[in-house]
Amino acid sequence: MNIEELEQIAESVRLENGKYDHELNVCMDLACVSQGSDRLRDALVKAAEASGKKVRIRRTGCMGPCSSGPLVRVDPEETLYHHVAAGDAQAIVSSLGGDPVPGLQCDLNEHFDGQVRVVLENAGHIDPEKIDDYIARDGYKALLTALTEMAPLDVIKQVTESGLRGRGGGGYPTGLKWGTVSKASGDLKNVICNGDEGDPGAFMDRSVMEGDPHRVIEGMAIAAFAVGAGKGYIYVRAEYPVAVARLTTALREARRRGLLGNNICGTAFSFDVEIRLGAGAFVCGEETALIASIEGRRGSPKPRPPYPAVSGLWGKPTLINNVETYANIPPIIRHGGKWFAAMGSERSKGTKVFALTGKIFHTGLVEVPMGINLRQIIEVIGGGVPGGHTFKAVQTGGPSGGCIPAEMMDLGVSYDALMAAGSIMGSGGMIVMDDTSCMVNVARFFIEFCMTESCGKCIPCRAGTAQMFTLLTRICTGQGAMNDLELLEGLCATVKETSLCGLGQTAPNPVLSTLKYFKNEYIEHIAHKKCPAGVCNMQASVPESPLPVSPFEVLE
Amino acid sequence: MPVFTPPPLPSDDKRWKIVNGTMRKNGFARHALIETLHTVQSSFGYLDEDAIRFVARSLRVPLSQAYGVVTFYHYFSLKPPGKHTVTICAGTACYIKGSDKLIAAAQKRLGILQGQTTHDGQISLMTARCVGACSRAPVMLADGQVAGEVTCEQVLAQLERWTVE
After folding, report:
1. For the domain that residue A426 is a member of, what is the CATH number?
2. CB of A332 within 8 A of CB of A160?
């Protein structure tokens, strides 16, 4: 395989597509399938066959605005239909070549105008199980360019220049990480793709793996070339069976095309990828725990240093990046690091995919340039809070993040700004809350999550989160005392500073951020035994601790 | 060094051959433990003591370590599932949209707590950390079929359909 052959494949796809007058792209992502888009596709195929028109029907990955699903886009007209039922198939097919079906067409210009699509550039345009569809949209061009025209150090230079930072949430500069692994001594290096999207409320990585799996594989191959690795692993949650199936197909296709395996593109570079399944442990998103899990052990983190870049999987230098980080690599190599660095804010470059969920009009995936303010995302792109309710807060970063109140809506989204506001960028979940959400209860929800997901290796996280949960439960059931707040704050500081890994170090964030911005709600709960949002049952007795007797008592 | 011979299959149940296949594919390497346990669970529905012993011996992993891995990861179950399983997502987006009420309603109707199976072995009630369909929250999986924006009535109707069977 070489660049000319890629061009030939792309050309043959274009010729094939040219035989059809119309394309019907049907979103087959989980959200649309849950509303019957699989039946819809079958109905469209039947209707198209019966009509005798030259129509191609393609299943695609997530198009973005899931709340309007099932979605169908008609090309080349670019007409977008929403809430399409199988019964509408006949009308859609008959309308081809004429006026669009009235009543089904949707106007989502405001939703799409503010977005810039880099990672999601192929979303809704390719069939995820067809490698040729990906190649026709410049797929694998970046890999072959890197292999034939660039030295590994040039690749790292482009990535460094792009200013790309880890999209898994930590925000560590990607170029710097690649440089460290490339300099590490050892001939059996590994690259790992972290697809253990354990953060509840976020599904960007699932959508990328399901909708555009080759992009992740290409990014990994480029990374392996840059750092000198020969083996790759994609660690995916077992809860994402479709992503596993799509990646398996994609790997098979890539091997068949000679884009993975020995001597790729006739060069000395050999690389292959294996899939490893997670088994439902949030802590496995932490890199050392993830490595332990790939090695077949319990997912307990290890103290760092040594960092995985020096001693990781099987004790060899290992590069770990998130799905979205790898997905950014092919466009960076194709267009150059400077192109990427021109987007975004001063210290956070490029774009970020967010999963907008909760009390918001348009739920789904959006991709926006870094630095865009929250108001723009929530009110314009997301369409605001529905049902006449008022916006209260947005939660970013999942269980490691915090809640940002309505007053701070003009905050520009970047790693540093979110950190300063007491939250984190995280993997990109954005959960919008309105006046019907109780912030104390939200904090309790996240602490319960961290408590059950704590691996138990270090005491601050294991015992600290349990005590925080007990205190928050007391407050949420009307049995709290004023000095509970001081205890909570003290406990937060201890857990944050002394935990072994990121799970414990960030677990107090939801509590600290709600204490900072919504202290009055805590005080209402304690002083007046009232839940302003009407969520907490203040008469309930404290439920028994779900854990066995804790070895530590909170000192009064 | 003597050549390692894996232990014989526990019974002539064909599913053991599938399990053995996974281990053979990985050269009976210790790191294939989680992969193999996944195969056992997908073939048998759960992991019982015989299965854990067999896998541990085949991969030369101490039984304590194999048991440790099984109990560490939430995905692995030591109890057989019911004939039908309803899973209600308890991720953040689903929680904000009131999935706790769905769980409470299902618990009340079935008379069991989450993670348990009814006495007749008909229905298991599970919760999930997040199934990734957050944009359609709250989400229910009825025997693996995803349904979005579900109401208490829909959950109860689903349970009713299974109970009538």
Report:
1. 3.10.20.600
2. no
